[in-house]
Amino acid sequence: MLLPNQSVNSNGHLVVGGCDTVALAREYDTPLYVLDEQMVRHNCQQYRQAFAQRLPRSEIAYASKALMTKALCRIMQQEQMALDVASEGELYTALQAGFPAARIKLHGNYKKPALLQMAIENGVGRIVADSLPELALISEVAGELGKQGHILIRITPGIKADTHERIRAGQEDSKFGLGLAGGAAMTATRLALELPNIELHGFHCHIGSQLLHTNGFVRTAAVVMDFISQAGAETGYVAEQFDIGGGLGIRYQEDDVPPTIDHLAEEVCTALKAAADQHNVPLPELILEPGRSIVGEAGVTLYTIGVVKEIPGVRTYVSVDGGLSDNPRPLLYDAEYEAMIANRANQPPDRIVRVAGAHCETDTLFPESNLADPQPGDILAVQSTGAYTYAMASNYNRFTKPAMVLVNDGNAELIVTREGLEDLVRHDVIPQRLI
Ligand code: LLP
Q: In the chain, fewer beta carbons within 10 Å around the N or the C end?
């Protein structure tokens, strides 16, 4: 599978963002994350245009949990995106990159007082309140700082998204948000309106990730607009913003057909307008928080194949120099990817092999990968790895985290340097008595 930003050059090498991936592997070593800048920018532009065209009052906030680096924050700022952060580390990174705090939204089901303080002190645009105790805490922290907490209330709509169960978030039985059915969302709305130092701007909802149909979004729009109308009737509150979260799926494999951004925009905007008309409530500003669909397909991971082991009558194992520590998704979510031999990208795949990582456990990366005669020394390129790979990388087995290069028009620049062995022991302490 070749994505639109990819080609094969006269040497038969896979080219991404105008760069020969085999040359990248040689220069920067492997495993290596490669991110195509133009594709990231194009996706941002697609989102902004598709929604603005249908709803002039709309905002797209990149969900930085998918991939967060300071360089990416600069790109998001240049593309006039807002930013969703979900931890102290993500917020710190954004602020370090100079991202305007007013365009940041802070998420999380458990935000410690220090995080709320950091957010309010720095003027974070929206805090997405996830529980009743958190509302009280925001009010208290904002009061201590002599500031206002600008919030959205996260609603759990009771919608079971059609995706892997570990990335569902909208069903009633969820740690996230305030439920509709039991009245928690309405209680939170009243509380937010009563509490001092809090300004309620509207509601938030996120039902899940890697959604390959628009129907979940459409149902969410209807359910939340219904609540907005009900809350208006009961409290007189008019919601100014509705954040429908992220979740649009991407193409991991040839036969995945995610909705286009334009199709998503058409469906969501139509549903929103219809619900506003039906309930006779003003149309709120629409916010989206896509992560995966901005960076996912823009990423390729390069590995070096080390060992090819054939077990006659069983299968062939192909071991690469990474795995679980740079991409835990196959083991966590049964995620499947397409891979190819980057140095022989013209050669048709001719055998099914099992690609394994190099960790000291069975870290199968791809149980059945169709490859062209894989040999030790070949470069394996794995498609659609821009989202939730580096973001979820670990130092398991004391593997160092790979570098990341940004490719654009034939140029490659490091945006994350490769960890060194010294980084692994940086935080280790030997107590005096053990010396
Ligand atoms: N907004 C909120 C509140 C979220 O929780 C998420 C994802 C997003 C937006 C962005 O969703 P996206 O557009 O990227 O689907 N580690 C998992 C994905 C976890 C998603 C968590 N929340 C994976 O590798 O599939």
A: C
